[in-house]
Amino acid sequence: MPLGTLDRSPPPFFKQGPSALSKLMFFSALSLFLMVADTRFRITQPVRAALATALYPVQWLALQPVRAVQGGGEYFTTLNQAKTASDDAGKKLALQSLRAGQVEQLTQENTRLRKLMGLREQLAVPVMAAEVLYDAADPYTRKVIIDKGMAQGVDLGSPVLDESGVLGQVTRVHPLVSEVTLLIDRDLAIPVLNVRTGARSVAYGDPTVSGSGLELRFMGSNSDVQQGDLLTTSGVDGVYPPGLPVAKISRIERRAESAFAKIFCTPQALVTGARHVIVVKPGTGQIPPRPEADAPEPAPKKKGAAK
């Protein structure tokens, strides 16, 4: 046999299939097809659900040691927190019980004193819930529009409150809506009472265009006012019920050249973001009518007058 006819290539040990490049191209195309098909048609969703269901017991068993360690640490932490919360709740409950007893006792004493002194009883004031619709269009005033009007029984001059204190007063009533002038409006004034000292005064809206507070006017430079004093409604005007929070004193300016101090206050109510409010019936109906003036006595006749 001639040597040129001999096959010099080594015999393969294993049966060879397609080339590596062919396999790479095939599996790349298959992967791309499966990704597009899964994105468009969700064909692998049942497979994933089946695999997740089959592997759930394995995952649960693998997580048990971690959960046991975490649960042990959380148990002691939660136990301490629960004990602390229980102690705080007990203290708050005891304090609330004490205050409730004091309030009840003071209410009874107030009732007895009013009966003893012949004063009239404090009447319950009817209220009505309303919602702020929008701010008034006038940029130089501080007013809002609420969704209650004449048809719902809103009266002109009714005080308007939010959850923190006095918000303003109804200054215009329409059939279905009403206009509320806020406390910070320059044209609104409200009689207030300093809770700490018992001194009465009048709070006016901030006169500046960008103002968002109140000002106590005509208070002497030596008046007993301090930063942080709470101002409530005094009730002397017969419109606002007494005791409603109005504002807190935020800044005091005492000047030697002026006989009055400039006292600035921050409203307690959310005057720039109130959403739900309460309209209170004005207290003018609770004020007793003014006594009629007595008829003037006839002038005495002069002596020697002709009969």
Describe this structure in words.
This protein has 2 helices and 12 strands. The strands form 2 sheets. It has a 6-stranded antiparallel β-barrel. With 307 residues, it is of the alpha+beta class. The N and C termini lie far apart (185 Å). The protein has a domain of 160 residues: Thrombin, subunit H (Beta Barrel), CATH 2.40.10.340. The radius of gyration is 41 Å and the shape is elongated.
Strand content of the residues, in percent? 15-25%
Task: State the major sheet.
Answer: 6 strands, antiparallel, barrel
Counted beta strands: 12
The number of helices is: 2
Class by helix and strand content? Answer: alpha+beta
Low-confidence segments: none
According to CATH, the fold-level topology of one domain is: Thrombin, subunit H
In brief, what are we looking at here?
Helices cover 31% and strands 24% of the residues.
Offer a few descriptive terms:
307 residues, alpha+beta, Thrombin, subunit H, six-stranded antiparallel beta barrel, six-stranded antiparallel barrel, 2 helices, 12 strands, 24% strand
Give me the secondary-structure topology.
Layout: H1 20-41, H2 45-117, E1 127-135, E2 143-146, E3 159-161, E4 166-173, E5 178-182, E6 189-194, E7 200-205, E8 214-220, E9 230-233, E10 245-253, E11 260-267, E12 276-280
Antiparallel strand pairs: 1-2, 1-12, 2-5, 3-4, 3-12, 4-5, 6-7, 6-9, 7-8, 8-11, 9-10, 10-11
